[in-house]
Amino acid sequence: xxxxxxxxxxxxxNAPLCRARLNASLIGLLLAAAALPALAQSVPTPAAAPGAAxxxxxxxxxxxxxxxDFELIDDTLETAKDEAQKARLGQISxxxxxxxxxxxxxxxxxxxxxxxxxxxLSGRFALHTCNGCDVDIGKVLKTDRVLTxxxxxxxxxxxxxxxxxxxxxxxxxxxxxxxxxxxxxDESWSRGIKYMVRSMVEKNQANR
Length: 208
Known about the structure:
Structural class: alpha/beta
CATH class of one domain: Alpha Beta
Order of helices and strands: HEHEHHEEEH
CATH topology of one domain: Rossmann fold
Helix content: 40-55%
Radius of gyration: 35 Å
Oligomer: single chain
Largest sheet: 5 strands, mixed
Number of helices: 5
CATH superfamily of one domain: ABC-type transport auxiliary lipoprotein component
Number of strands: 5
């Protein structure tokens, strides 16, 4: 008589059923993998935040620009520093031109062909407030843009450096930019130009 056992007999697995479940799982995984590219394409790209700078235009040809020298608005009517300030106006005019070229902000043209016109107009008007005569200079030089620039002196401690860029064809203002500086020295004026150019680069404000 065979020996008895207290363990119940284990039921036999249904092999075809196990294989069917395995195949169904594999099919489900393959279908899910195939759907991933379509799902990725359906996810919307986040919108740019309001006021965010537009991405720089790569490969866009540089617009030509006529850059007029800095002028001075002196609210103090002080004359003792006139010569030093006149020299600084020339220095920062050259500094700004060089920075525009170095940073590929615009294609800076030579003002020499319009020197007589510039001399005549600047002898009678402030070029940044001459009701569009700056645009006339740009037309003579056949540029896309024209830049006027001025330093406003409130006191020997408080000054601001300003530029304005116009579209020569329409006369519309493309950019107004101002930087406050402290102290009336060569170093502070130069530092203001460096900050202005760096800000233009960081905010993609060139070649507009």
